[in-house]
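> run fold Class E sortase
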Amino acid sequence: MAVQVLGELLITAGLVIVLFVVWELWWTNIESDRLQDAAMEELFDGFEVPPMSSEAPPPEDYGDPAVLPSPESDGTTFAAIYIPRFGPDHARPITEGIGPEVLDTLGLGHYPETGMPGEIGNFALAGHRQTHGQVLDAVDTLVPGDRIYVQTAEGYYTYVYRNSQIVLPEQVDVLAAVPTQPGAEPQERILTLTTCNPRFGSQERFIAYAVLDSWQPAAAGPPEEIRTVASATASRQG
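> ok
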């Protein structure tokens, strides 16, 4: 009798574990995708997005990039990010804050103490890798030269991926204005992506760095590589 009861308890425990894994790896992604779509819709409501054009505008030098002020509170979605390496339709919101109320629902979170898009220094973001939308699941597939685009109400910021490193969770100097060099005077405009490593664990952190290559105001329309997805995303949300 005792053996039978123990067996039933083990079976029940096994089912609970399986259901938890299904919820963690499947349902959280569905729910996060829904919430991120809602955040993108709200974001684009405040944007003036030019209509999609099949012709690319001639490249121009628009001077120093415009920089938005930091959001006043966590939970404010202020930008969208496009990473073509992750797929031709990749578009995700960027929201202020890195607490679970942001990362578990709204995708990429902005470290409040770091810079803003286009600013000299370090614009640092965090995101989950295998759950809650899997926003940085493919971060390890980036190769030097890949472009990462950030869109705000001011315009489009084009960053070029440079390199990555794997660090321990306590190595927070990757968030410094000059990553890994606290106190150094920044000269570059850097984008830093942080996520867990390995894919199904959290013993380490995977850090990816990109450097600003160019920017263009909203009136110029999206850069050519993301023109279709950016315009389609804006139209869909609108």
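Residues 12-27 have pLDDT under 50 and may be disordered.
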